[in-house]
Design brief:
Helix content: 25-40%
Distance between the termini: 9 Å
Order of helices and strands: HHEEHEEHHEHEHEHHHHHEEEH
Number of helices: 13
CATH topology of the largest domain: Beta-lactamase
CATH superfamily of the largest domain: DD-peptidase/beta-lactamase superfamily
Oligomer: single chain
Radius of gyration: 25 Å
Strand content: 15-25%
Number of domains: 2
CATH class of the largest domain: Alpha Beta
Strand order of the largest sheet: 2-1-10-9-8
Length: 397
């Protein structure tokens, strides 16, 4: 007797059917047909005259473009510049230390850091992400201070180096809530070494490439901003938005990409003052694709229907593209963007789309996303479609 499937089993079977589409479902466009079809699809009212470009990674040929040299609001697609910039100046395997010591002078502690971008403000968030947090650093500092000195801290002078300004502010605010008043003085790393006594807290971050992957996979705004500022600082520029802008321009120039139309106000993409061109982003994606130094960028890109900010995309709009799109998403009020790579049998295309003229409504954003998914579905196809298993329908009686 064949048992009736439970609801969970039915859902699982449905999910498998979507993820393992039969070979004949991949009716991808021939390269020669792409320009005309993409032109028609990009005329969709839901995209409101977007900026778009499609490039063949094998040949570098621009297969399709529309307004690709116009400066548009990129939203979180600008995180690709943050990631590229920090990897341009810092080794991917670099880890960042944040060590807190009892000071040699009474009533002082010394924070000797390396601008660790991974420190989180919220403890619960840090635990989920495997990150250290300011509350953890604060609690351990207080407890260890009391163990060593035999008394509870009531007033502390913080000597610090290598700490993001906002992290210092948050650290002081944490101590203040615990009844500890603080003053802070920035010192040099050499001075930090000389004025440190017993260790209170020793913290080591994961590698930079781990941070880059997380930033791109989950579009972490705070982390992206820190990585961009770290890139600016390491390159010798100012530790602010102006320094980020100069650094981005320098990185693009070093790749042979014209940065003249690029306007940068932050490293996260939250600012509506940011401007990039689809062509510049496509050129950058082409330059870094096969460079080992930048491998964590491709590895960190969300995968359509599978991971990160793309995990719920393509499942119903273009199931044939599930698993075949690696791309950075972008969302602002009035802007939907997508930039990355799409596999098409033995080819891989670079795709950049910025729709920054859509209505500022959630429904408009959803329609723009769905339209972009369907466009990519026209060319997405695995290299060996015949090897994809076709699930046998499960009896329900």
């Amino acid at each position: 007797m064949i048992k009736r499937l439970r609801p969970l089993g039915l859902l699982l079977a449905f999910a498998l059917a979507i993820s393992a589409a039969p070979a004949h479902a991949y009716n991808k466009l021939a390269p020669s047909a792409i320009p005309v079809v993409f032109q028609t699809l990009s005329d969709s009212k839901f995209l409101a005259d977007p900026s778009m470009i499609l490039v063949d990674t094998k040949t570098g040929e621009v297969v399709f473009e529309r307004n690709s040299t116009q400066a548009r609001k990129p939203a979180s697609v600008i995180k690709l510049l943050s990631a590229t910039s920090v990897l341009s100046y810092i080794e991917a395997q670099k880890v960042f230390n944040t060590n807190i010591y009892l000071g040699t002078d009474p009533g002082t502690i010394v924070i000797n850091g390396e601008f660790d971008p991974w420190i989180s403000l919220i403890q619960s968030q840090a635990e989920k992400m495997g990150r250290t947090s300011l509350p953890r650093l604060g609690f351990n500092t207080i407890n260890r201070y009391k163990e060593i000195t035999g008394k509870k801290a009531k007033r502390l002078k913080i000597l610090y180096t290598g700490l993001f300004p906002q992290d210092l502010v948050n650290f002081q605010a944490f101590l203040k809530k615990r009844g500890i008043r603080t003053t802070a003085e920035r010192i040099t790393p050499d001075e930090a070494g000389m004025q440190s006594a017993d260790p209170l807290v020793l913290s080591v971050s994961p590698t930079l490439d781990t941070m880059v992957k997380w930033t791109l996979t989950w579009s972490d705004n705070v982390l992206a901003e820190k990585l961009a500022r770290l890139a600016a600082f390491t390159s010798g520029e100012a530790f602010n938005d102006e320094g980020i802008a100069v650094t981005f321009h320098t990185v693009l120039t070093n790749f042979g990409i014209d940065p003249d139309k690029i306007e940068v106000s932050d490293g996260s993409g939250l600012s509506k003052q940011n401007r990039v061109t689809a062509k510049a982003i496509a050129d950058l994606l082409m330059k870094i694709r096969n460079e080992p130094k930048y491998a964590s960028i491709y590895d960190g890109l969300p995968i359509g229907g599978v991971s990160g900010t793309l995990q719920n995309r393509f499942l119903t709009t273009a199931p044939q593209a599930v698993g075949l799109v690696h791309a950075k998403t972008g969302t602002l009020s009035g802007t939907i963007s997508l930039a990355g790579y799409v596999d098409s049998e033995d080819r891989q295309y670079i795709f950049v789309a910025i729709a920054d003229k859509i209505p500022r409504r959630y429904s408009a954003s959803e329609r723009a996303r769905d339209t972009l998914d369907r466009i990519l579905g026209k060319i997405a196809a695995p290299i060996f479609p015949d090897l994809i298993p076709v699930p046998t329908p499960v009896p329900t009686i």
